[in-house]
Amino acid sequence: MSACKLMLLGEIGVGKSSIVKRLVFDRFDVDYKPTLGVDIYRYDVPAGNGADALSFIIWDTDGNFGEAMFRHVYMKEASAAFIVGDVTRRATLDTMLSLSVGFRENFPGRYQGLIVNKMDLVEGEPVQLPSVLAEGRRDTFHTSALSGANVALAFQTAAAEILRRGL
User: Reduced to 3 states, what is the DSSP secondary structure of residue 88?
Assistant: First the structure.
């Protein structure tokens, strides 16, 4: 089984830790404890739909780095990144898009996905998102760490794309 390093990037409080805990442990913690530095998790994406299995080494960052993250040792050998924003806080979506540009510029050709999290908080309400974050794009996922909606799908899609690109 191949393994690759995947970074979780985004501002503090967007739900990066909640997403990875939902993925790895299938749980949601109601007590918020911010990440200090980085937490590391492992998640094995099983083979399926003609794709091989892939093991993600997920680096859950604390969100204090902004654009400086791309010069940090944490990013060394990163094969991919998910950049996370909170649908209820527009500024985090703007930061997400800025980090997306930075990741593309600093790590050309590597997979990146955008996660618009906390969709459960706006269920049934009209949501104005930048067009680049529209549903249906292959690289954008609307998730809820609380319910688990689309969390595993995001990582399965990332694994398939990374394998297709040959790591």
Answer: coil
**pTM listed for this prediction:** 0.92
Q: Break the chain into its structural domains and give their ranges.
A: 2-165
Tokens 């094969």 correspond to: 79
**Top-tier CATH class for 2-165:** alpha beta
Sequential DSSP letters for 110-167: SEEEEEEE-GGGGTTS-----GGG-TT-TTEEE--TTT-TTHHHHHHHHHHHHHHHT-
Burial status of residue 100 (CB atoms within 10 A of its CB: 0-12, 13-18, 19 or more)? buried
- Taking residue 116's Cβ as centre, other Cβ atoms within 10 Å add up to 25
Question: Using one digit for the tens of pLDDT, what is the confidence trace for 98-146?
Answer: 999 999 999 999 999 999 999 999 998 888 888 778 776 789 999 999 9
